[in-house]
Amino acid sequence: MNNMNTFFATLRAKIEQGQRITDAEALQLFEADDLLAIGDLADLANRKKNGTRVFFNVNRHINYTNVCVNHCRFCAFCKDGSDPGAYTYNLSQVLEKAAAASAAGATELHMVGGLHPELPFEFYLRLLATIKANNPAIKIKAFTAVEIDYFSRISGLEVEEVIRELMRLGLDSTPGGGAEIFAPEIRQQICPEKISAARWLEVTEKIHAAGLKSNATMLFGHIENYSHRVDHLCKLRALQDRSGGFQAFIPLAFQTQNSNIKVEHGPDGIDCLKTLAISRIYLDNFQHIKAYWVMLGLKISQVALHFGVNDLDGTVVEEKIGHDAGADSPQALGKEEIIRQIRSAGRTPVERDTLYQDLQVY
Amino acid sequence: MPMEEMTQSASALDAIQVALAQGIPLTREQALYLYHEAPLLTLGRMAAARRVALHPEGEVSFVVDRNVNYTNICSCQCRFCAFYRDISDPQGYVLSTDEICAKVEELVECGGTQLLMQGGIHPELSLSWFEELFTHLRQRFPSVQIHSLSPAEVVHLAAHAGLGLRECIQRLQAAGLESIPGGGAEVLVDAVRSHISPNKIGWRKWAEVMEVAHSLGMKTTATLMFGCGETPEQLIEHLLRVREIQARSGGFTAFISWSYQPDNTELGREIRAGATGTDYLRVVALSRLVLDNIPNIQASWVTQGARMAQVALRFGANDMGGTMLEENVVAAAGVSFRMSQAEIIHLIRSAGFTPVRRTTGYQVLERY
Q1: Chain B: nearest CA to A308, how far in angstroms?
Q2: How many domains are contained in chain A?
């Protein structure tokens, strides 16, 4: 007990003095039982960075296809082209959704999809150009490092060229998906066909080098252990030291339904809060920790605002990936409801754009 | 915060900590202070410490039970309720004795020990209907405790039979009713009740049923439905009234709070949004701190979901309630979480506690 008190006091002093915690300390936090003490440290770290402000944005997800050549075992979304549930939106369908989003006041489109075996790179360029032409004000956050690597392979272009082309036609930032868990022994089991961790980090570094911001995710609560999580955080912190291009870190709670990874229980409430909190404490060079309510549930996400989280994501509208995996959260949240949730936690709601510029403080 | 205010708040919190450590019940002002001012995690830590003091063994209990809603026909027509139907409504139902027995049989097959039978206030079901039913259930399923009805139903049955409360409860008890759940308490402040449930018994009647039941040796629980438009003062008033009843009669085994679920209800047109996660944890923690004379605080996974219920175990709760083989009332308001016994055991264990299956009266049946 005394040892733990000393441990927490040491970490508190480090946070107050702006020093980073070590991998061993992060591991010890994961293994610690005192959820509220971990929460206090995370809250301290968050308040030092962000005060009482909590961000959200008004966005819309467009999952343009669920056809994917990878068959990640945790994924309940992907289909083969011949599967009955397979779909791919055509350009006009995407435009329709983008127009509806614009009309509803969305400032961002979050666009990710499967690695489609037949669509050419030009399709994605046309997608960007057409959306931008019709909705000049909306920011497009699209294509994970996994997709960008895939575009490079299908087009024969270097990754740098792919990014340059995407940016030229309207890409504003990239999401942080596809990171999953970096540790090879876990990655091989949960997503054997997906690009390696080294490649994900390499592509992401190139995205940052091109001047684009991205996010980073971590899929947790399946077959990985705490050391794998710390290893994941460690690689992200190191890349951020080099590139500075990450905006938010987003831990994603594994959803057990319709998944081929057979674990009995997904991450529980305490694990979710702990993981968010430790991410905040460890990733001292990330400005934002986001609670993705689609996968965590809205109540836990709101409680997480006291556990180091300063971003409640967006209004979302039509999310498919988490819901196919059994997420029981609503499909969309009204802006008023997000504002109410943030206020109820005693924090100040700030609507942001894709690049974390204030749009309005509520 | 200016230094002076910070010092003040630190000293107010210190005074509360001292009171708690000395076992002095919190005052209304202290409870209100905690509600408004205490940081969430501070409140949680204080409640968790109280929980450890009251339950040093580090166990979290649950009961294997089933809700049987014998009828949805209800003359109360509470504005927060999505379950009730009018007697003339084609969707109205009353379960037959055979249907009820079939449900209890399933419960017994799952090793269940508690039958939570509640309905609407059906204008025509009589005391003797329940006496016959309970007598039959007790004979056929002796391993199941009949933990049923609620004060509003009991009051209706007494009036319908032209009996006093004591005689009515005595007859139900003789027929096999062993304990009464604390439903229908909502908020025990008539100014709130007249708005959300104008046809339901007032808070004094609720208290009277509980005190009479306790005096007859029956145990009961007490509940709170918050987030239905009550003020913080009214919420605290509720807690204090429950504490006062308990001080007189001592029969409450547990306190259970849940948040109003607005979907599909009339009140939902006024109050569209339910209580948030932090609201819930504050109420759980506060109830642990204020209700020093009630042994158990239940987490409500049925209304809050498994993740939140587990987190509530770190905010003062020490019981996960029932496994609820069947639940209809909350589901009617658009929320349906399901949990198996195995999941409940897993959640308790991964929260760092020993899972314990219990009886309705909180006797340990099995440790896991």
Answers
A1: 12
A2: 1
The domain of A170 spans 2-361
Domain contains B8: no
Question: CB-based contacts of B233: which residues, under 8 Å, 6+ apart?
Answer: B32
Q: What's the rounded mean pLDDT across residues B280-307?
A: 96
B228-260 per-position pLDDT tens digit: 999 999 999 999 999 999 999 999 999 999 999
Instruction: Tell me the pLDDT tens digit for each residue of A229-280.
Output: 999 999 999 999 999 999 999 999 998 887 888 888 889 999 999 999 999 9
Q: What is the pLDDT of residues B194-215, one digit of tens each?
A: 999 888 999 999 999 999 999 9
CATH number of domain containing B137: 3.20.20.70
Is position B361 within any domain?
yes
In chain A, what residues touch B232 (CB-CB under 8 Å)?
none
What tokens appear for B293 in the block? 């004379």
The contacts of residue A111 (CB under 8 Å, 6+ apart) are A61, A62, A63, A64, A127, A140, A141, A142, A143
Chain B residues touching chain A at CB-CB below 8 Å: 39-41, 44-45, 48, 273, 276-281, 304-311, 314, 337, 342-343, 346-347, 350-352
Task: Over range A315-322, report the average pLDDT.
Answer: 68
Residue A163: give its domain's CATH number: 3.20.20.70
Gap between the Cα atoms of B45 and B285, Å rounded: 9
A333 touches chain B (CB under 8 A): no
ipTM given for this complex = 0.92
User: Is A328 in the B-facing interface, judged by CB distances under 8 Å?
Assistant: yes
Task: Report the number of distinct structural domains present in chain B.
Answer: 1
Closest-CA distance, B347 to chain A, in angstroms, reads: 7
3-state DSSP helix/strand/coil % of chain B, to nearest 5: 50, 15, 35
Chain A's closest residue to B277, CA to CA, is A299
**Phi, psi (deg, nearest 5) at residue A73:** -75, -20
Residue B34 lies in a domain: no
Q: Does A306 touch chain B (CB under 8 A)?
A: yes
Provide the residue range defining the domain that includes B207: 56-367
